[in-house]
Every structure is written in C-alpha cells, then in structure tokens.
Amino acid sequence: MPSSGRDGVDDILDQWRRERPDLDPAPIGVIGRISRLAREIEQRLEVGYREHGLEPGWHDVLATLRRSGPPFQLRPTDLTTALMLTSSGTTKRLDRLERAGLVERTADQHDRRAIAISLTAEGRALIDRVTEAHLATERDILRSLPDADQRRLADLLRDLQIGLPPLGNGPA
Question: How many helices (H) and strands (E) does the chain have?
Fold first, then answer.
C-alpha cells in the first residue's frame, strides 16, 4: 500500500529533480530513508538504555555475550568481530563495563593463556531486563507496519545487505 504522506526525503528528491533533471535521484529515496531511520531508531533505543543505566555502546556488548549462550563468554577477538568495532573501541567499553561490575575478564576455559569476557550475574540480570524493554521499543517503532510488511521489509533489507560488495570493491 503506497504511503500518502511526505517526508523530508521527498523534498530532497524534488530539489534534485529540479536542480539536476539529468540525474536520477531515486537511490536517495531508499538510502536517505535508511540513513535517517537508523539515526532516529538509535536515538529512540538509547532512551531505553539510559533508563536502565546503560552508557552508549554497553547494550551491544551485554546482548552479544547474553545471546552467545552459557557460559555467556567470548574471547575478546570474537566479541570485537561481533560488535564490528576496533579492538581499542572494544577494550574501552569492556573497561567501563568491568568497573560497573557487569562483565569480567577471566582465563579462557579452553586455553588458560587466553582471556575470556564473561557476563557477571549482575550483567546477565540487567541485560535480561533491558532486552524485554528493548524489544517492546522495537515493536513500538514498527507498529505502523502490518506484520506481513515487517517480514517483507526484513527480507528486503537482508537481500540488500547480502548483495552489497565487500568494502573497497564498489564502483570507482
């Protein structure tokens, strides 16, 4: 069902069509909206994180450890890869989470020479509470789309992401 409303991206498209009729600005309709939505969604989610005492970036670390399953533990390199951060960015988050008592660094149970990052009992309890609120916020964000449209959008976004060439291999 087509939308009857207009948004700021529609204005941008109109401006490009007026100023550069030789160009097709249609990609802005998708990319511009994805970009704007990503920022707005993140702002809405951050409100919930703050309400639970989480600093920016903490949720991703705690959620990644929680969904890894018992013993809720990952090697730093695996955590860094899952978070798509630099190792220094991960270390900064881990230092703060450790000081807050939400994670701990321990010897890896499979390799005593290596370190593992584990959820503490307090960290697990917190992320379990936050996840319930987080999912409710996400459901609220999506409430204007019927379930079938949500599934279709998820499929389309997956296809878009899978179809992207690796970074550095795009058009020149």
Answer: 7, 3
Please return the burial class of 93, using the count of CB atoms within 10 Å of its CB with bins 0-12, 13-18 and 19+. buried
User: Considering the chain, what percentage of its residues have pLDDT values greater than 90?
Assistant: 77
**Amino acid symbol at 117:** I
- Whole-angstrom CA distances from 135 to 44, 49, 78 are 12, 12, 25
Contact criterion met (CB below 8 Å) for 83 and 92: no
Name the nearest CA neighbour of 53 among 158, 156, 148, 123.
123
Distance linking the first and last C-alpha atoms of the chain? 36
What's the pLDDT tens digit per position in 104-119? 998 877 777 789 999 9
